[in-house]
Write a structure and sequence with these properties.
By secondary structure, the chain is an all-alpha fold. Helix content is 90%, strand content 0%. The protein has one domain.
Length: 191
């Protein structure tokens, strides 16, 4: 039989008792004394045995919360410093961007001016070289034309002379030339 069943049986054997109190709100004096004494014993036991671990747990909780607050304050300060650094970096980037663009524009303008100057110099050089090439070609052509004209003139003169001279006249001229050569050779041998 269980304990609960025994207690129920005991109460049933005793019969019903009615409890009446001297006051409608307060219990009997014995109950107040025994209840108060039990409360004080339990409170003292809790204070003596459970108090130090509870105080230690509360102190540890307080320290843990304070550490979390300190860590969050440090993290907030670090985040604000990072935000300031990023903003400064962005300002620096804007300044660097403007400087790079200005440098690029200046370089482009300088290269454009240098390109025009270089092109002008190349044009002048090409014109000078072309003029020299034209003059050299003119000299070669004139020389070739003069040579061809001289050759053609000599050929034409020879043809004209042959047509004009008959065989008899040609023989006389050859004999006269030979005689002149022989006379010149004979005189050269004496001296």
């Amino acid at each position: 039989m269980s304990v609960l069943a025994r207690v129920s049986l005991f109460l049933a054997e005793e019969g019903e008792e009615t409890y009446e109190s001297h006051h409608w709100w307060l219990p009997e004096t014995k109950e107040i004394i025994w209840g108060g004494l039990a409360f004080l014993i339990i409170a003292w036991a809790l204070w003596k045995f459970a108090g130090p671990p509870i105080r230690k747990a509360m102190a540890a909780r307080t320290e843990r919360i304070q550490k979390q607050l300190d860590d969050s304050a440090k993290a907030k300060a670090d985040a604000e410093a990072e935000v300031a650094r990023v903003k400064a970096s962005l300002r620096d980037l804007s300044a660097d961007k403007a400087k790079i663009l200005d440098d690029a524009r200046a370089t482009a303008e300088r290269m454009r001016v240098e390109g025009f100057a270089r092109n002008d110099a190349e044009v002048v050089e090409l014109e000078t070289r072309s003029a020299a090439d034209i003059e050299a070609a003119r000299g070669r052509v004139q020389s070739e034309v003069s040579g061809q004209v001289a050759t053609l003139s000599a050929d034409a003169a020879e043809r004209i002379v042959r047509q004009q001279l008959d065989d008899q006249l040609l023989r006389e001229l050859v004999e006269q030339y030979i005689a002149n050569v022989g006379a010149a050779g004979g005189n050269g041998g004496r001296s």
